Each structure stands twice: as C-alpha cells, then as structure tokens.
Amino acid sequence: MSILQKNSLFAGKYTVLLFIKKSKNAETYRVRGSNNKLYFLKLFNTTQLNQANFDNNANLLAIELLKTIKHPNIVAYHDSGETVINNCKYLYLMEEFIVGETLLERLAHESIFTLYDIRHILSDVLKGLSYLHSLPNAIIHNEITPQNIMLDLAAETSVAKIIDFGYARTINQSQKEYKLPINSIQYVANECITKNIFLPQSDLYSVGVVMYQMLFGKLPWKINKIASETSNMETNFATSLLDQRQEPLLFPNIVGQIIDFDDSILNVLEQALQNDPEQRFKNAQLFLQALTNQKSTPWKEFVAPANTTVEENKLAGFAAIAGMQELKKKLQSDVIDMLRNPELYRLHQLALPNGMLLYGPPGCGKTFFAKKFAEETGYNFVDINPSDIASVYIHGTQEKIRKIFDNAKENAPTILNFNEISTMMPSRENISDGGHSHYAGETNEFLAQLDNIGNSGVFVIGSTNQPHLIDKAILRAGRLEKHFYIPPPDREARRAMFELYLKNRPITDTIDYERLAMLTENYVSGDIKLIVDETSRKTIKEHKEGKRKDTKITMDDLELIIKTIKSSISTDDLKKIEQIKAQMENIKQERPKIGFLN
User: Fold this and answer.
1) Do strands 77-85 and 88-96 pair parallel, antiparallel, or not at all (unpaired)?
2) pLDDT digits 0-9 by tens, 137-192
3) Which end of the chain has fewer beta carbons closer than 10 Å to its terminal beta carbon, N or C?
4) Domain ends where: 96, 131, 160?
C-alpha cells in the first residue's frame, strides 16, 4: 500500500495523481503542482536510509547532486524538502515531469528494430554521462539500467534522459555501505562488485550492458536462478555473475533482424564490456564517437608528429574568439611572446614558463580558450580529463601522468590542458588517511613532471572552476604561476554568439544583435544557444498550430524567450567566483621575493 493517497494534497501545493513504483527506500508518484504543471515526486523514508545516502552535511545525496545538474539528457530538479507523515520523517524530491516511458517499458512491449534507434538513445545517455563525468567533482551515476533511462516523447524526436540518482556519488566520495539492489547488479562492472571501486568507466560498462540488451533482447550473461530463501542469495548471485563474465562474450546472429545492422557495432560493444576498466573507452565522449561512427582516437594520438612546423599547426587562434580583448592582450604579452620567441628570452637568461592556470565560472569557455591559445602559439594540443588519468591500480594514476608528460616531450612543442585540475590535484592539506591518501603521490608526481618542463617544449594549462581547492604547491612560482581569470562572455562576444547561432536559421530583418547582447549580461555560450534553439522550437510550434504564417524568428520571439531563460551562472555563483578571484590575486601579490637583499 502506498504512503500517499490519490487526490491528497502534499506539502500544501502538490496534488497526488498516481502512485508509480516503490523501491527499498523510496516511493515515486505523479503529482500536479499549484501552477498546474506535472512533476515526479520521490518520497524517501529516512528510516530506510543509511549513512552512505548522505553527504558530510547530512543532506541526502540524491537531492543535493541533482540540484547542481543542468543538462538536456538528465532529469531536471524542481523542488525538495522534508515532511512528517504518520509520525515518520520523510525527505522529498520533486523532478520535472517527463512525458514518455522508461527504456525498460519500451523493451517490454516493443523490440527495437533499427540500429539508428539504438544509437540515438545511447548517444543521449552518453551525452548526459559525459556532462556528469566532466563536472568539477565528477558524478558517477552508478545505476545506468533500462529502468533509469526515460524516453521523453513530448518532442518530435524522442530524447533519452537519465533519471534516479539514488546511488550516485561524486568520484571522491566514500563508497562504504554501498549496496545496489540485486536486480541492478547485472548492469554493474566487476570492479564495483569486487572492490567497491566506482569510476566513470564503470558507468560506461553499464551502458554497454544496456546496449547488448537492446541489440539481442537479453542480458549478456545467463545466471542460474538462486532461491530467495538462501541466506547468501546476493553473494551467490554476484559470484555466479563474475564467473560467467570470465567466459567469452557471445554475439547471437541478428543479421536481418535489425535494420541497417553493421558488424562494426559489435567492436564498440566488446570494448565497452571489457572486464578490465583500463581496456574500456577512456571517457563517454570516445564511446559516443565510436558509437556514431566518428573517428575515435586515444589521447596519445591527439598530438601531431614531432616534425610538424608552427605554420602547419597554425589555425584561427584568438581570431576565433570575439571580445575579451584585454585578456587576449595579457596572454599575448605574458606568455605567448615567450613561447614564440624562446631564444630571445634565453639570451636574457629568462626561463621559459612551465604553465598557467585558467579559472572562472563554469560554461565560460576555458577549454575553448586553451585550444585557441594552442593555435595562437602553434603548439600541438592534448586535452586531458579527470577520467583519463583515473586508475583502479595502486600508483596507476602516477604512471599515467608520467606517460602523458613523456609523450608530450616526444611530440613537442605540445600544450597539455588538464581540465578540472582541482579534481585531479586537490590540496594535500585536506587529505586524510581515510581513503584518499593516494592523491598525495599523484600530486607529487605531477609536481616532479612540471619542473623545468618548459625547456622541453611542453607548456601545461590547468583549467578549473574551483582554483581554491588546488594544491597550493602547483600554483607557486616555476609551476602554474600565471593565473588568468576567464569571465562570462562580454557584450562583444555575446553579440558574436547570437550572430553565429542565428546565421543559418530563417530570421526577419528585425534582429537587433546589440540589444540581444545587452539583454544577456552574464549569459554563457550554452545559455545563448539554448535561447536560440528554444526560439526556433517556439516558431515551429506556432506555425504548426496556425498561429503564424511562417517559422521566421523575430526580435520579439527572442526577447520573449530571454525572459524565460535565466543565466546558468547565478548571482551567488558570480559573487563566490569574484571572491575567489580576489584571493587568487592576493596570492600572487603576497608571494615572497627570492634573491639578494641590498
């Protein structure tokens, strides 16, 4: 029997419409808000939750993580709180309602007949995971199953969205007491079962299991039924599963059953389902590229041959970045001139810089800036994410760091861009012996590699939203000593973004790009693209409904959408980053001078 009754009022503003499902510690309902919108309500029984479900501030992880997430392929947070029902305390999470069905429901009533559909659904899932894994503190979903993939059927083309963050954790959080429900274990990677180690590659393994199920209509391993009355049922089930995974993966013949079937998809599936996480796709983006038949190259092939000349490697550079003139001038004078004319600076006995830090709010284009910086200098460029150096083996990450620098030196001149370096190299002052002491060794290896790396033709960029969390030794003189703040796009840049995103769409001659730039202060590129996309959807919808004669975008359309879409950077976030910026500038000013006193 469900806790809430149909048509009852919940939290004073939501009417319960339908009980959907019950899990070990939560119930899910469809409700209608006082604004007449539909929502999913997840009601958590606090007596059924354990310590692993909460963060260090005693907040429920499933709620706190979802609050920080904003992505079209992930269910959206709406509201949360706590309530008391029948003298029992409950926590609740309100999510935006998705018109559609789960992938599990889809598979139950309809087989998937085309490879296009499989690619379309899994591409959406991988885009969501790529976003989660690339966050400053990467989030591992830990339960990618057909039950937790929702197909949104409201749009003309269905969109797959990841739901249910009940078992999600950040990559740095403890996995103690982590225990998945038995019906989800078959989607979980070996390292999760045997070692309680959860990586971005573990999520990718789960996507591989889902992919196998979509292709062949069954799970990859047949497990003998284990009686529920067995006291060690879960242990026996896991043991049987691990034994099965030692056998070669079987691919039933489905030629003729799946329209546009291509054998190459089996190579993608096989790599996703490797028992060794080191042999799987290194990140969701590479998995996505392989799935969609794009060129998939491991990081070590990103650098060009050593004999590539500056001219051959020279692309648009800073010319591709509108606005930001002061920042570009400072980078030019402080760093680029030295990298372009090393002999001149050596003549004056000046050491070449080893690296710099790019920091600022999320979404402001730090990685894009780093790429354009590389083009401006003529250096080869290697982009490195936290998942690229993660390893389940002792000292495995240190070995990967060493190889990255060795490869860069062999293919110099090279720029290494470490995305979210605060996650890779957190302050050793905050590291205890409680499971994260390995970061000290990794940071020491990184510092050792940084020493005089500039003389080897390698320049290191660290990018982050949280520079205050980086180990201080990394930011000292001779390391990443140059610090550059990447702010939200200025007016000139925002104007150029609107021109870019509207360029190939049907528009009227009423568009005032200068006014659009003025109306979107503190908006980032993703926000502006969303504004333009939503405006296009609005014109198409109104045209279909007969409310307008064509689908041309007008200035009024854009202004109306701008009023409904807020900047993804909140005022509070901007205040915080400005405070951090002030701290970073003080660090540079307070750095002690080294030399002889008069």
Assistant:
1) antiparallel
2) 889 999 999 999 999 887 667 899 999 998 898 887 755 555 666 778 889 998 88
3) C
4) 96
Q: Residue 326 falls within a domain, yes or no? A: no
Domain extent at residue 120? 100-294
For residues 203 and 208, give the distance between their C-alpha atoms in angstroms, rounded to a whole number. Answer: 9
Amino acid (1-letter code) at residue 186: Q
Q: What is the CATH number of the domain that holds 14?
A: 3.30.200.20
281 and 147 both lie in a single domain: yes
- Hey, what are 24's tokens? 């070990």
503-530: pLDDT as tens digits:
889 999 999 999 999 999 989 888 898 9
- The number of folded domains in the chain is 4
Q: Mean pLDDT in the chain?
A: 82
Q: Same structural domain for residues 413 and 436?
A: yes
Give pLDDT, residue 230: 45
CA 468/CA 10 separation, integer angstroms: 41
Identify which of 4-18, 387-401, 576-590 has the greatest average pLDDT.
4-18
Here the CATH number for the domain that contains residue 164 is 1.10.510.10
Strands (E) in 130-250, as ranges, are: 139-140, 149-152, 159-162, 169-170
Q: Which residue has the tokens 């990081």?
A: 299
- Asked if residue 118 belongs to a domain, the reply is yes
Pair (167, 255) in one structural domain: yes
Quick one: which of 122, 280, 146 has its CA closest to 201? 280
Q: Are residues 313 and 338 located together in one domain of the fold?
A: yes
Q: Would 432 be classed as within a structural domain?
A: yes
- Co-location of 256 and 163 in the same domain: yes
Phi, psi of 84 (to 5 degrees): -120, 125
Q: What is the pLDDT of residue 340?
A: 79
pLDDT, tens digit (0-9, with 9 covering 90-100), for 283-337? 998 999 889 874 333 333 333 333 323 233 344 677 777 777 888 888 888 888 8
pLDDT digits (tens, 9 = 90+) for 382-426: 888 887 776 645 566 788 888 889 888 888 888 999 988 888 888
- Considering the domain architecture, whether residues 125 and 72 belong to the same structural domain is answered as no
Q: Which residues contact 429 (CB under 8 A, 6 or more apart)?
A: 471, 472
In this structure, are 182 and 250 located in the same domain? yes
Final residue of a structural domain among 464, 483, 502 = 483
Q: For residue 68, give the DSSP letter.
A: T
Buried b (16+ CB within 10 A) or exposed e, 273-283: bbeebeebbbb
Q: Confirm whether 155 is domain-assigned.
A: yes
Same domain, 258 and 343: no
Encoded tokens for 375: 């083009």
Q: Name the residue among 558, 557, 540 with its Cα closest to residue 549.
A: 540
* pLDDT reported for residue 312: 35
Tokens representing 240? 């049987």
Return the number of other C-beta atoms located less than 10 Å from residue 338's C-beta.
Answer: 19
pLDDT tens digits, residue range 251-268?
A: 888 776 776 677 788 889
Instruction: Write out the H or E segment, with its range, that includes residue 51.
Output: none
SS3 percent helix, strand, coil of the chain, rounded to 5, is 45, 15, 40
